[in-house]
Design a protein that fits this description.
By secondary structure, the chain is mainly alpha-helical. It has one domain. Helices cover about 85% and strands about 0% of the residues. The relative contact order is 0.16.
Length: about 140
């Protein structure tokens, strides 16, 4: 048994778990921010106390920018995890011995697995940038 390879496999699994967790944070934050944005847009003038009318306008104006910032920050953390996994796979490739179970799948399969952490932030980013541009 190749103990170094097993240790690298555990590290890759840890990074993969971080990708899943960060993607969940992204989707959760965007669901929350989109809901807040929609509720703020739908608050009619007669439903808002005058004291909060300016706060509502400010919230509608700033939420898209806050959302873009969240996307970019979480995208950076996703990129870091994917980069870390690539480094770990390279290290594993150097120490793999005949008979060792492969530590990773083919590149095409890996790229398919990376579709969500790469594309989902892009979809939310495009949505918010379209909303910002449509003003």
């Amino acid at each position: 048994m190749n103990e170094q390879l097993d240790a690298l496999r555990r590290r890759i699994e840890h990074e993969d778990n971080l990708v899943n967790q960060r993607l969940s944070w992204l989707v959760g934050s965007q669901a929350f921010l989109l809901t807040a944005f929609a509720i703020s847009l739908n608050a009619g003038p007669d439903l808002k106390p005058p004291l909060y009318a300016s706060a509502n306008r400010l919230l509608v104006a700033l939420l898209p920018y806050a959302s873009v910032a969240c996307i970019l920050i979480l995208w950076l953390t996703l990129a870091g995890a994917l980069w870390s996994m690539a480094v770990l796979r390279t290290q594993a490739g150097r120490i793999t011995q005949p008979g060792d179970f492969p530590i990773h799948s083919r590149p095409a399969i890996r790229w398919l697995g990376f579709a969500a952490p790469i594309a989902i932030p892009a979809v939310f980013l495009a949505l918010w940038l379209t909303l910002i541009a449509s003003r």
